[in-house]
Amino acid sequence: MIGTQRNNGAECFVQGNIMPELTVFGGVTWIDARLLDTGVAATNGKLVVGVPTVKSDVAVDYHPVFMRGFALTGAIHAESSRAATNTNNSFAPAYATFDLGIRASGTFDKRTATARFQVLNVGNTFIIHRLPTATSWKSRRQHRLPWNATNLHGQSPDGFLR
């Protein structure tokens, strides 16, 4: 695609302790990513493929005082629908995922070490916020969706759709 991608947006992030043992952090991003000066009326001013208008992540870290160095973690990641084509005639639907993990830190051989175990997308289920149309269903299967801002690995809701 020849032209310019223009991005306007805003991001809000918060972090804090709800209790001494419970930390919550997360944020929301709004972005209006548009194609400009494409030379094609059908694509000029349209949304950029694969960019959600709204993205949000919220993570929780529970670290009980009586278990020094141990924590339970959880996160929710959500994205709004995304354009699947440059003409915006089909969209991948909005979705959310849920993650769980544990973390243990301690001193070994005079060095601090941390071990983590995480299950990303618990249940291998994408929570679809609306039923897809026939065209968005097909487009979603052809377009890989990013997992989240940490880019641990790419995922697609194909398993949910089978």
Give a quick set of tags describing it.
7-stranded antiparallel beta sheet, 2 helices, mainly beta, 9 strands, two-stranded antiparallel ribbon, 162 residues, disordered C terminus
User: What is the strand tally?
Assistant: 9
Contiguous helical run count: 2
Low-confidence stretches: 129-162
Strand content: over 45%
Helix content: under 10%
- What's the rounded overall pLDDT mean? 81
Give the C-alpha Rg. Answer: 20 Å
* Large-scale geometry: elongated
> What is the count of distinct domains?
1
The termini sit apart by 32 Å
Question: What is the H/E order?
Answer: EEEEEEEEEHH
Largest sheet: 7 strands, antiparallel
Q: Which secondary-structure class do the elements indicate? A: mainly beta
Describe this structure in words.
Helix content is 8%, strand content 49%. The two termini are 32 Å apart. It has one domain. It has helices at 134-142, 158-161, and strands at residues 4-19, 22-36, 54-62, 70-79, 82-83, 91-92, 95-108, 111-119, 127-128. It has 2 helices and 9 strands; from the N terminus they run βββββββββαα. The strands form 2 sheets. Strands 1, 2, 3, 4, 7, 8 and 9 form a 7-stranded antiparallel sheet that branches. It has a two-stranded antiparallel sheet with strand order 5-6. The longest helix has 9 residues, at 134-142. It is mostly beta strands and 162 residues long.
